Input
Amino acid sequence: MTEIDLAFAHHQAGRMREAEALYRQILAQQPEHADALHLLGVLALQAERFDEAMALLQQAITLKPRWAEAYNNLGLVLQAQGQRAEAIAAFRQALKADADLADAHTNLGLALLDEGKVEDALAALRQALRLRPGSADAHYNLGNALAARGSINEAISAFEQALTLDSRRKPHSSARSGSRPMTRKSTTTSASC
Output
């Protein structure tokens, strides 16, 4: 197991101190280790250290300019800082790099919904659903957007599908699904914490 794999395993298991120490150790030896920069950026995002997260993710993107997951995570940082237009641009950049990145479609849709751009949000959320048709979260998010548009019967149908797929989801919950950082994607694999 490589150092980055061990750090990532700690990260996924919620052992953030151990993960952070290993990411920093890797970067001390290899300052341009794109995966370590990205993952440490995600860890900083999860710890709500947004300035640090932004700097790390921007460094990773500089090293790998077409890294969809890094742009998606940068969008989450920007959104957390209230920079909606910049977040939307980052999510769009993620989709430019990988049009099949369902999380970027979801995050774009939710950001557009926050901006009151319901029809654009619906298009993004429908694409996320096409990419993950068995996802309760995708149906739930679509239901929220449909409700915002006033399409109550369609929204109810989407919520019912979400409940069918995930009996633990409460239809009256105000929690939104999505906006979760993606933590790792090498050239062959993808995973998230």
